[in-house]
Amino acid sequence: MKKSHLLLGTLLVLALALGWLSLPGAAQAQPAHEAGNVSLVIMHTNDVHAHIEQFNKYGGFCSEDAAAEGKCFGGVARRMTMINEIRAKHPDALLLDAGDEFQGTLFFTQYKGKATQEFMNDMGYDAMVVGNHEFDAGPETLAEFIKGAEFPVLGANVDASNDPNLKDLIKPYTVLTVNGEQVGIIGVVTEMTDILSNAGPNVKFTDPVEAAQKYAQELQDQGVQVIILLSHLGYTRDQELAKQVSGIDLIVGGHSHTFLANDDDHAAGPYPTVVESPSGDPVLIVSDGAYGKYLGYLEVTFENGVAKSWNGNPILLDASVEQDPKILARVEELAKPLNELRQEVIGEAAVDLDGERSSCRFKECTMGDVITDALLWGLKDQGVQIALQNGGGIRASIPAGPITVGQVLEVLPFGNTVATFKIKGSDLLEALENGVSKAENPENEGTGRFLQVAGLRYSWDPTQPVGQRIVSVEVRNADGSYSPLDPDAIYTVAANNYIRNGGDGYSVFKEKAIDPYDYGPLLADVVMNYIKANSPISAQIEGRITQAQAATATPEPTATPEPTATAEPTATTAPTEAPQPTSTPAPATSGSTPAWLWVVLAVIIVGGGWWIFNRKK
Predict the structure, then answer these.
(1) Count of domains observed in the chain
(2) What's residue 15's pLDDT?
(3) Are strands 153-154 and 451-454 parallel, antiparallel or unpaired?
(4) How far, in whole angstroms, is CA 529 from its chain's centroid?
């Protein structure tokens, strides 16, 4: 009897042990790391546009008064402080950039990409994608930036194989090892960069969707299961790409200056925005506005290469974040040659002059009125009747008060010259159609072509097909009255040399301009002379640009989160629903045995053993 009890006890212990080992979380022999299982912390920026120093609520120069009142934001010294704080807690945190680090302040005017390169190296960026503005100063300047960068610069859809400066410098992707896991990072940029910037004839831009799919598959074939896409396409296109490309887990976006957040009513969408991939897995999309006002921050956990849980939000870099002393000292050193120039007062603004992206690319804006009025005023002796300025060339606002040289150069940082030409009325109408061809949706590619005007007024209908949106055009006469545009008449026009040479889709100016001259004075100089002669400047909306149907007006871009005005338009469609994060245990893999089966097996073993033992007895 004792032997039978001993056997029964042994069998019961065996059964319980088998059952316990089958339970989730039980101590089992596991490899040190399973491919595709990793937790990442990701910091990111996009569309910084050479905002090396802290800046005011308009994205412009931070005055001593504004700084003393704690009303300035961003800057590389403040960003460095936050990066260091995060790395102290998460040493393997990634730092990524989604493009357009170039162009937008006097730091780029003075140093091109050298200051940006220095500070990105100091902050320890892990990778960036080229944006369209990285090509503004030509391939040679970009090549020098890449050669000195201590991180890979990506562009999977950039073919620079025929460019002597950029050949072999821009990589399609990079692979980093983070917490024992290989993480692939691909970069894509808008294929319209050759139109939007100055890439030159030897650099080609291919389909970003095809490039993303090609290299995502290549990375997966190498065993890389976690893939991040650095995208300079814009928020709407990021959502579309996420639905089309297999293998992408996270998109860090730029180009549209879109602000995503979970605690701000002005945000264009949630942070992250979640879209379902072709395989049904979630793709996370993040973007943090522009200028480095925020530092994007995302925590995400992957299981078998699929995002399972996540949280995060952009971190506001306001006056509560101290500026890193070492970085700040270097910024101040580089700023010395700029300060004398930027502080020279040339006039006064009686009102705020609105140069915001959310205004000048979609409707009449007062900064656009000032620039085009300055062109008519400065070239009146040349018989110029009409002045045009693309909204994308207006990069900042000027608040009411003294106007300085530095402020004007931040509004017009591209160094464009004034171009004059004659053009037939029908061709001018074609140009106006190009200007409104993207403006019905703030998330469209190429909204910077929208024309600010002087010497004419026009009305357009965003509900009509592209090429048929201009409802009426009237040209101002010498006595101030207006007459309808004559398609057969020849008009004398002033613009900047960028659009005259076909930039922003204005091929009609390049191909059909009569007697063009592109080498006039700097546009910024003309504007400064106008301000000097006509202060105080009190520009008001005059109805130069109107919509024909108020009921179908262009969707208003999202207002900037207070107290800054750098947030960008929201998307016009809601993001696609996708699987949401869960904190429940991951399901068993296909190779595991269910717990209930182990219990049944244990009972059979115990019962069978007991029956055999008693039968022998």
Answers:
(1) 2
(2) 45
(3) unpaired
(4) 34
Cβ atoms of residues 459 and 547 within 8 Å: yes
> Residue 495 and residue 518: Cα distance in Å, rounded?
9
Amino acid at 234: G
> Which residues constitute the domain of residue 462?
346-552
User: pLDDT digit string (tens) for 245-256?
Assistant: 999 999 999 998
Across 68-84, b (16+ Cβ under 10 Å) vs e yields eeebbbbbbbbbbbbbe
Q: Are residues 65 and 144 in the same domain?
A: yes
Q: Kindly state whether residue 6 falls inside one of the protein's structural domains.
A: no
Q: What are the two backbone dihedrals, phi and then psi, of residue 37, each rounded to the nearest 5 degrees?
A: -105, 110
Provide the CA 479 distance to its chain's centre, in angstroms: 46
Q: What is the pLDDT of residues 536-546, one digit of tens each?
A: 999 999 999 99
Ranges of the chain with pLDDT below 50? 1-8, 10-33, 550-601, 603, 606, 610-613, 616-617
Please give the Cα distance from 181 to 614 (Å, whole number).
56
Dihedral sign computed on CA atoms, order 283, 288, 291, 295: negative
Beta-carbon contacts of 365 under 8 Å, excluding residues fewer than 6 positions away, are 354, 355, 356, 359, 391, 394, 452
What 3-state class would DSSP assign to 235?
A: helix
195 and 281 assigned to the same domain = yes
How far is C-alpha 124 from the chain's CA centre?
20
CATH number at residue 543: 3.90.780.10
| Claim to verify: residue 250 and residue 357 sit in the same structural domain | no
CATH of the domain at 131: 3.60.21.10
Q: Which two tokens stand for residue 441?
A: 């949706």
Residue 489, classified by CB atoms within 10 Å of its CB into exposed (0-12), middle (13-18) or buried (19+), is: middle
pLDDT of residue 413: 83
Choose the final residue of a domain: 294, 316, 338.
316
How far is 233 from 52, CA to CA, in rounded Å?
A: 23
Q: Does residue 15 fall inside a structural domain?
A: no
Question: DSSP class of residue 73?
Answer: B
Q: Please, are residues 547 and 246 in contact by the beta-carbon 8 Å criterion? A: no
Phi-psi category of residue 18: left, alpha or beta, with phi > 0 → left and psi -120 to 50 → alpha: alpha
